[in-house]
Amino acid sequence: MDDKELYRQILGVVSPWEIEKIDLDMDNNRVDIYLQWPYKMEGICPECGKSCKIHDRREERIWRHLDTCQLRTFIHCKIPRVKCDEHKTKTMEVPWADDMSRFTRQFERIAIQFLQSSQNRKKTAQNLHLSWDEVNHIMEKAVKRGMSRRKDEPIKYIGMDEKSFLKGHNYITVMTDTEGKRILDVVQNRDTEAVDKIWGTLTEEQRGSVDAVSMDFWKAFINGAEKYVPEAAIVHDKFHIMKYMNEAVDKVRKAEHKALLEQNKKDLKGTKYLWLKAKENMTKENKKDFKALNINQLSVGRAWNRKELLRHLWDYYYEGSARKYFNKWYFSATHSRLKPVIKVAKMFKRHIENILTFIKYRITNAFAEGINSTIQHIKATARGFRNFKNYRTSILFYCGKLNLYP
Ligand SMILES: [Zn+2]
Predict the structure, then answer these.
(1) Confidence bin at 384 (pLDDT 50/70/90)
(2) What is the distance in A from the centroid of ligand 1 to the CA of 46?
(3) No. of helices (H) and no. of strands (E), the chain
(4) What CA–CA distance (Å, rounded) separates 364 from 362?
(5) Class of domain 157-237+364-370
(6) pLDDT digit string (tens) for 19-36?
(7) Which of 328, 406, 404 is nearest to 147 (CA)?
(8) pTM recorded for the entire structure
(9) Domain ranges of the chain
């Protein structure tokens, strides 16, 4: 078997494309393969598939291919342009790559697979001998392809979330399909403009299909849902609510710990996370530590008690019972003489109608919260995100459930 035939089989060069020549450069571990469309043959119009006369050949282009025999492999070709009676002068399609790509399809496929399984850009770049920008380029193209393939299918439940981006007060708005467990899109900031922009990514029919939107108490998100999906219910996310409650417990603990220290009492030292844990998640050790504290004598014990009671609000299946339970809870919270607890209780009361919608729809922002660890991991292996575009690409690449392959 000669070299040409060998490479023809390795590369899967489809007839009538043929190998014109092969340049092996052993010193640089590199092989360059020149492909061509036979000169005697007519070309094919990319629009209608008809045979047409070859008009000319474009300047040579080079694609990076998968390594062959451990040599970095490049494909060269001067792609013919055909002259179609109907479609005028057109550049022919080549079977090994998409238009304007610097890589062959097979190469992009492997790079995408590698990125997905390793979740590590640096490793991918090293293993495939790619530059940082080349990895980004492949990811961007993959996301673009995936986004254009998305269908305008109905989406029942939407989640609206914010996440921090870079340092300081930079936020992004994240829209999720909570049932499909995928991120629909992300935009910069979390203001009215950002909310308009992200709702604009859905078609009118899709917006009409939304039954409920889960979110925090963030005003711009509430306004956005009322404006773009007025028929849909707003469901304030229980995890966000419990986070507010936990913050209140922690404030009480801090103040009490400080006051106790002034009397030289160290009872609350090192107990921060004990109070934030849900009762059923406590370890044996936790429970022992907990018993040692006289919780009925402590303000933080009273705050903790209100927190644990509040969690049961989401166990209800009837709105009437849930409302009754909340009212009882509200009374005990506002009579706790604990300022931070009273403050959050009043906030919950203001939003109670859209908290109780949970009983019917039972949706949360858990999915968006769950991807935080994925994002952290991507961040850690990607030298952070130098700009929003890269950040968005990464999030959609890993959490968009897109069809990324060429
Ligand atoms: Zn044509």
Answers:
(1) low
(2) 7
(3) 18, 13
(4) 7
(5) alpha beta
(6) 999 999 999 999 999 999
(7) 404
(8) 0.86
(9) 1-96, 157-237+364-370, 272-361
